[in-house]
C-alpha cells in the first residue's frame, strides 16, 4: 500500500499539482492551527500518518511523548544524539539535511536546480551583505518532513540582527525547484549574518520556510515570524552562540542556504544528494595566512521588534 501511494505521488505533474496548485497561504494557516491540536486522538492519528508516509524516526528525540503533531515536529534532540566537528578550521552543518546545489557564487549567481540560476541579491535584499559573498561558497541544505528541524550555529558566532522577509510558501521539494524560477527568493525567509569569533569574517544562514506550517523561530527573539507576523523586518538579536548550540527552529520543514566569503571551501563529501547530519564538517576556513581577510559588512541600523 505504502509503495503504491509513493509511486502515485512520485509522478512529477501530480506531485506539483497537489503541493503547489492549491491555496498555499490558507492551507498553511490552517495546518499551523491543526498541527497544534492537543486532543490525543487527533495527535496520535496525525503522527501515525506522518510516520507511515515519511519514515519518521523519533529514536533521537529528547521526549518520548508529544502534546501535538507540532510538538513532535519541533522536537529537541536527546543529549549526545549528534556530534559536532570540533575542528576550529571547519564550519559545521547547522542542520540535518540533504545537500542540494552547492559550489561557487559566480558573478553574484548561484544555482537553485539545473538550469535555474538566481541572483544572490534577490535572496538577500541587503546589497552590501550580498556583495560580500560574490565569488564565495554556498551550500543548499534541504530538510525533509521526517528530519529534525532545529538549526544550530556552525561555529562560535555573534548574531547582531536578523532580517525577516515575508513571502510565499511554495513547496521546496525537487519537483518544485525544477519548475518555479527563483523559488527561494519568493518564499518567506530569514537572513542571519553571523560574525565568526575566530577571525571576524561574516558568513550567513538563510532559512527559507515552506508550505503547510511555515514560520521560523529564533531563541534570541521571542516572536514567531510567519505569514501573520506584522513586526519589524529587522530584529535586534545581539547574541553570541557557541558552535553547535541551537539558533532556532522551523515551524515546518524547508531549506537553509549557507554562504561564506571567498576562500572558504566545501569539505570532502559535501555534494549534491549527500545526506548529512547537524554537526558534520561542511566548509573549511581559509588558510591561516588568509584568515581575517574575509568579508565584514558595516553594521546596518537595527529596529527592535514590536509587540
Give the key terms.
8-stranded antiparallel sheet, 307 residues, alpha+beta, 17 strands, 2 domains, disordered C terminus, 9 helices
Describe this structure in words.
The chain is of the alpha+beta class and 307 residues long. It has two domains: 72 residues, no CATH class; 196 residues, no CATH class. The strands form four sheets. Strands 12-7-8-9-14-5-2-16 form an eight-stranded antiparallel beta sheet, with no helix packed on it. It has a four-stranded antiparallel beta sheet with strand order 6-13-10-11, with no helix packed on it. A three-stranded antiparallel beta sheet has the order 1-17-15, with no helix packed on it. The radius of gyration is 19 Å and the shape is globular.
Amino acid at each position: 500500500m505504502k509503495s503504491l501511494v509513493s509511486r502515485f505521488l512520485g509522478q512529477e505533474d501530480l506531485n506539483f499539482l497537489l503541493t503547489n496548485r492549491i491555496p498555499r497561504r490558507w492551507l498553511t494557516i490552517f495546518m499551523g492551527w491543526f498541527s497544534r491540536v492537543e486532543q490525543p486522538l487527533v495527535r496520535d492519528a496525525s503522527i501515525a500518518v506522518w510516520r507511515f508516509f515519511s519514515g519518521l524516526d523519533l529514536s533521537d528525540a529528547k521526549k518520548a511523548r508529544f502534546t501535538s503533531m507540532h510538538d513532535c515536529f519541533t522536537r529537541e534532540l536527546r543529549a549526545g544524539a549528534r556530534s559536532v566537528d570540533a575542528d576550529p578550521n571547519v564550519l559545521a552543518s547547522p542542520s540535518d539535511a540533504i545537500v542540494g546545489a552547492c559550489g561557487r557564487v559566480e558573478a553574484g549567481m548561484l544555482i537553485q536546480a539545473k538550469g535555474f540560476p538566481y541572483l544572490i541579491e534577490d535572496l538577500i535584499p541587503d546589497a552590501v551583505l550580498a556583495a560580500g559573498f560574490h565569488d564565495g561558497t554556498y551550500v543548499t541544505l534541504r530538510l525533509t518532513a521526517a528530519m529534525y528541524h532545529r538549526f544550530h550555529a556552525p561555529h562560535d558566532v555573534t548574531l547582531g540582527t536578523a532580517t525577516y522577509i515575508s513571502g510565499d510558501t511554495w513547496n521546496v521539494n525537487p519537483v518544485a525547484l525544477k519548475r518555479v524560477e527563483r523559488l527561494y527568493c519568493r518564499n518567506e525567509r530569514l537572513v542571519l549574518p553571523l560574525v565568526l569569533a575566530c577571525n571576524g569574517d561574516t558568513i550567513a544562514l538563510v532559512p527559507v520556510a515552506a508550505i503547510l506550517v511555515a514560520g521560523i523561530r529564533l531563541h534570541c527573539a521571542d516572536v514567531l515570524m510567519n505569514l501573520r507576523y506584522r513586526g519589524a523586518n529587522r530584529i535586534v538579536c545581539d547574541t553570541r552562540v557557541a558552535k553547535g548550540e541551537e539558533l532556532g527552529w522551523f515551524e515546518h520543514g524547508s531549506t537553509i542556504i549557507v554562504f561564506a566569503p571567498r576562500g572558504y571551501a566545501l569539505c570532502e563529501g559535501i555534494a549534491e544528494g549527500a545526506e548529512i547530519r547537524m554537526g558534520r564538517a561542511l566548509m573549511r576556513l581559509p588558510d591561516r595566512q588568509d584568515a581575517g581577510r574575509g568579508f565584514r559588512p558595516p553594521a546596518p541600523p537595527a529596529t527592535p521588534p514590536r509587540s
